[in-house]
Amino acid sequence: MTRHFLNLSDAGADGIAAILADALDRKQARAGWTKGRIDADAPLAGHVLAMIFEKNSTRTRVSFDMAVRQLGGQSIVMEAGQMQLGRGETVADTARVLSGYVDAIMIRTDEHAKVEEMAHYASVPVINGLTDASHPCQIVADLLTVIEQGKALPGLRVAWLGDGNNVLASIVEAAGLMQFDVAAACPQGFQPSNADLALGKGRATVVGNAREAVEGADVVVTDTWISMGQAHADTKLAAMMPFQVDAALMATAKPDAKFLHCLPAHRGEEVTPDVIDGPQSLIWAEAENRLHAQKSILRWCLGQIG
């Protein structure tokens, strides 16, 4: 049976735990190496990953490209506008064609239905590099970053500030799987859906204000307020400002609390410079961990772990 990674629940708690353990081991084994050096076991030698981008990308593009290279494989990068997909060929036909050429497909797109259709018709693993509904690869990197700080996931308290978006949906899903708690402070009109909250299996709540979410938190997380393609920016920014992460708000979290942001960031909007560039911020480790997370996600999809 083909393993797809469209949401965290595709791997389940045991699969996510295996991915995280593998990522930690492989990262430590590469300490001090140059980035282009292939892992000693080259587990994806002879494998090719196709990457489809319908949305702009920095971290997803480079981390997946470097992930497959470090594992000994190769990648093909395709912009949707330069493919027949951008001229009306169906996702289903694209999935069937690519399955005859490559060993796995990663797609970064808008509608979640597209990755579901891709997975339905592909005979090779399909990985969700981002959709409007979820961002599972990012959250694996976030969990990896937290674990590296010596924080156990069960019982962890995570505070989310701002938009009830795709990143929050995947954090909530992770909470339900890995047994930690999420308190989300979001303005009216931008709260997560009941369906997204249900992914947390009772471990996620929406609270009334930023301080209530952050008090006693182990990890504080936010994201850019205006995502690619969103309109009505001025109205949304005004609604979001009370949920900005600043030093005073961080001071209400635990003394050893850490700050995460999946980037790109807009300093002075969702977070102030003294927080995102301060000692509690883990954003650069978090960004690097996209690489290590993708490597182990690829290995899980291809049946090498878990």
Automatic annotation (TrEMBL):
InterPro entries assigned to the protein according to its UniProt record, in alphabetical order: Asp/Orn_carbamoyltranf_P-bd, Asp/Orn_carbamoylTrfase, Asp/Orn_carbamoylTrfase_sf, Asp_carbamoyltransf_Asp/Orn-bd, Orn/put_carbamltrans, OTCase_ArgI
Primary subcellular site in the record, as a coarse category: cytoplasm
Protein location: Cytoplasm
EC number from the UniProt entry: 2.1.3.3
Pfam families the UniProt entry points to: OTCace (PF00185), OTCace_N (PF02729)
Key words, A-Z: Cytoplasm, Transferase
Reactions mediated catalytically: carbamoyl phosphate + L-ornithine = L-citrulline + phosphate + H(+)
Task of the protein: Reversibly catalyzes the transfer of the carbamoyl group from carbamoyl phosphate (CP) to the N(epsilon) atom of ornithine (ORN) to produce L-citrulline.
Protein name: Ornithine carbamoyltransferase
Gene name of the encoded protein: argF
